[in-house]
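Supplementary notes for students who missed Thursday's class. We covered one full example, reproduced here. Read the sequence, then the structure, then the short commentary at the end.
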Amino acid sequence: MLNIEIIIGLLLVVAIGAVVAQRLAIPYPILLVLGGLVLGFIPNLPRVEIDPELIFLVFLPPLITSAAWYIPWQEFRTVFVSVFLLSTGLVLATTSIVAVVAHTIISGIPWSAAFVLGAVVSPTDAVAATAIAKALSVPRRIVILLEGESLVNDATGLVTYRFAQAAVVTGVFSFWKASAWFVVVALGGVIVGLAVGWLVTWIHRRLDESTIEVTFTILMSYASYLLAEQLGLSGVLAAMTLGLYHRWQSPEMLSPRTRIQTIAVWEFIVFILNGLIFVLIGLQLPIILDHLSGESITTLIWFGTLISATVLGVRLVWVFPGTYLARLLSRRLRESAPYPSWQQILIVGWAGMRGGISLAAALTIPLSTNNGTPFPERNLIIFLTFCVIFVTLVLQGLFLPTLIKWLKVVDDDSGIKREEMEARLQAAKAAMARIEELTNQDTNLASDQMIEWLRIQYKERICQYDTYCQAMNDGSYKQLAAFQSLQHEVLAAERSMVIKLRNQGIISDDVLHRIERDFDLESALLGSND
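Structure (token representation):
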């Protein structure tokens, strides 16, 4: 049970851990798991036990929706075949092979329970993949592939887990019935997500209050998940579809003010929920160990190592032929993305992080079957799940930056920057054309002086973007960086003067805040000054 003092303490750990992770230049999920692990073994501290329903109900819907929101739909469509092979074929292959290994090395674990273990550890985690991939300089297409895979295979893994668990509890399993129901669950979840997405769009078009609109975006995330789950469908796919649909509609649906507030609020929520999940994962090991008996710690570690190695090995073996198979099946992928280097494929194979979804699924395993007998090796399955999470998230995650550096895989984002500047240039030209059109239509639109001022402003903007595009085409990135640094310095001088005027009592705080907001928006537009 989490009381308010424990929640505040965990939030403090999240904040401090994120700062330390930034100083050490490692992804914060890794440090938070280690921090939770250390806290869990400190004597006299209260035990914090995860309620798996809390993960699925409170944490999962907004995190899935947010992750889907940031996936570019057009690029996601391009890599969809690759995502499908990873999120279905690889999940099923991992489930089966882990089950075979577990049944072979662990005496007394039946096939049905072994398949439960395989299903629990088979899906990568959307939260972990997004948090770590974005913290590292890897090519954009790899990040999109990992995020898309983790979103879709959460649904695949959880549905597979349901069938495996039902087989243990009831003693009955039908492959064809399970396959047909899987299709129904997946398609139904997508339909629910689209329906809720349409409702969200309808509501937003009739509201003009940013605070209420932001609130609705959060509530609808939970609504899509809960509605799908109540209907026996995939809540994960419903939340994911809502995020994709909402993102596609947002440019025409949200006002500029609402969009800025929505992004800020969601970034805060996602950071808090992410941080709490990773700390809670680390805190679970002492509780898991308390429930284990019958095997020595050496044997348990050996089992955990073998299962973790199997999970990693299956993925590494799968991704190489899967990469080429995806391009054979998809002409769009073949034309838009050349065959990647073996180094990039290896990064995709290595970056299969597991996280809170796997642990929550393991903790939901029932204590007994329908005939009253204990669920076979339940505590061992939970322990092995934690081992896989620790190995894939912490150990692989810590080594991933070194592997990226060793393989010389870099994120060349010049393409997207060039695309951005071209779009800005075309938008400025469209604005210029509109100025001339309105001027010719209505001579009383504004004074000649104001029209000329607006015309000069957009001419300068067009010239600036055109210079950017030419510099990018020529490869003059150092000049662009120097110019951006100069812009930041000039903006800092403006900000300092306005603060000085406030301190001298010449202007009020209200005036400062109005001007400061413009400075903040301009600074955000310029980007980082690192």
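Commentary. The chain is about 80% helix and 0% strand. The CA atoms of residues 188 and 231 lie 9 Å apart. If anything here is unclear, bring it to office hours.
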